[in-house]
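Treating backbone geometry as a discrete language has practical consequences that deserve illustration. In the encoding step, the backbone of a single protein was reduced to a row of integers, each denoting a local shape. The amino acid sequence and the backbone structure tokens for this protein are reproduced below.
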Amino acid sequence: MKAAAGALVLLTLLLSGCTLLEPPRCPPGQERVRTAQLFFGRDVAGRPEVSEAEFRKFVDEVLTPRFPDGLTVLDGGGQWKNAQNKLIRESSKVVILVMPRGPQANLRLNEVRAAYKQRFSQDSVLQVTQPACVAY
């Protein structure tokens, strides 16, 4: 009986640590911002991969006009499985954007993704979007 009571006390203590905490609130003016990460694969069937110069030109012609306030470009490497379940590894470019929420941001992101797919014969451009609290 003492063991059962001890187990009950221990279980109560453990579960008390599982309470949900409210996420921290952003200061006024910083809460209506989100980040988007775009992952651009560089392998192109039937030709060499997208070069640094080609990607820079894409940034200048497509990304910068749609996101003139700034962006960050990182080199990446990723992997995924194709329709035949074969593991594919390729180098990539990761673009990080911070922008206001709203339909215009979504429209511009979709335009960028469509332009890259068409220009470099890509099946997809991965997009990850999440809320953010930003301060400069």
In short: The chain has a mean pLDDT of 85. The longest helix spans residues 103-119.
